[in-house]
Amino acid sequence: MLGILLHRNGYVPMVSHTSQTYNPTRPAAYAKPTVDNTRRSGVDALTHAFATLPTLVPSLPQVWSLTSDRPVQDFKDHEREIYTIRWSPCGPGTTNPNLPLLLASASFDTTVRLWDIDVGRCIQCLQRHTEPVYSVAFSPNGKLVATGSFDRCVYVWNVSDGQLVKSFRGEAGIYEVCWDKEGDRVAACFANRTICVLDMRL
C-alpha cells in the first residue's frame, strides 16, 4: 500500500506498507494507512522534494530532493511502523509564514513525533497514548496538534512545548481526527461508527 501527502513547498511524504489484510475493527500490524492528497494552492508541489517511508524500514521517514539521488534528511527515532504523516500549515506562502515547516508522524510505537524539516531533527515527542496512534492533524494556525489512537483517546497538544492542552476518551479506537477551518473544534472518528466533536473554546 502507498500513501502520498503533498505539501505546498514541494515536499511529498510517502507512506509504504507491506501487503496485509485490512480489518477496520481490529487493525493488523500493518494496517491501511490514511492518505491525504491535499495540494496547497499557488505552488507546484512536484517541483522540489518529497519524503518517503521505505517498505523495508517503515519506521524510517526520509526527505528527498528531486534534484538529488540521496535523502536530504533521515528521521530514525520511531521504534515501530509509522501509520500517518501530516504537514503543518506553516512556512512562506501560508497564513502562518513565521512558523517553521514541520512534519508530524504517528506511529505504532504509541508516540507522535514532530520533525523540523529545515533543521532535520525531532523537536517534540508526544507521549501519552498507550496503543498505536492512527491519526494526527495540525490546527489551522499550526500551534496545536490533535492525535487519535486505538486507546480510545483524543489528545490536543501545544506544538511549541509539547504540553497536553485537552483530552477526551471515547468508547472505541480512533481512526481519524481533523480540525474545522477556524480551529475551534476537533472531530474524531471512532471504530464503533460514532463521531465526537470537541469544542476547544470550552
- Beta strand count: 16
Number of helices: 0
The CATH topology corresponds to: Methylamine Dehydrogenase, Chain H
Cα-based radius of gyration, to the nearest Å: 16 Å
SSE topology string = EEEEEEEEEEEEEEEE
Major beta-sheet overview = 5 strands, mixed
Query: Which residue ranges are poorly predicted, with pLDDT under 50 across at least 5 consecutive positions?
Result: 1-6, 10-47, 55-59
Indicate the overall shape: globular
Residue share in β-strands: 35-45%
Query: Largest sheet, order of strands side by side?
Result: 1-2-3-4-5
Helical amount: under 10%
Q: Measure the end-to-end span.
A: 39 Å
The second-level CATH architecture is 7 Propeller
Explain what this protein looks like in three dimensions.
It is a single chain. The protein has 202 residues and is mainly β. The chain contains no helices and 16 strands. It has a single domain, classed as Methylamine Dehydrogenase, Chain H (7 Propeller), CATH 2.130.10. Strand 3 and strand 4 form a beta hairpin. The radius of gyration is 16 Å and the shape is globular.
SSE topology sketch:
Elements lengths: L1 E3 L8 E4 L32 E5 L8 E4 L5 E4 L7 E6 L14 E6 L3 E6 L4 E7 L5 E6 L5 E6 L3 E6 L5 E6 L4 E6 L5 E6 L4 E5 L3
Parallel strand pairs: 2-3
Antiparallel strand pairs: 1-2, 3-4, 4-5, 6-7, 7-8, 8-9, 10-11, 11-12, 12-13, 14-15, 15-16
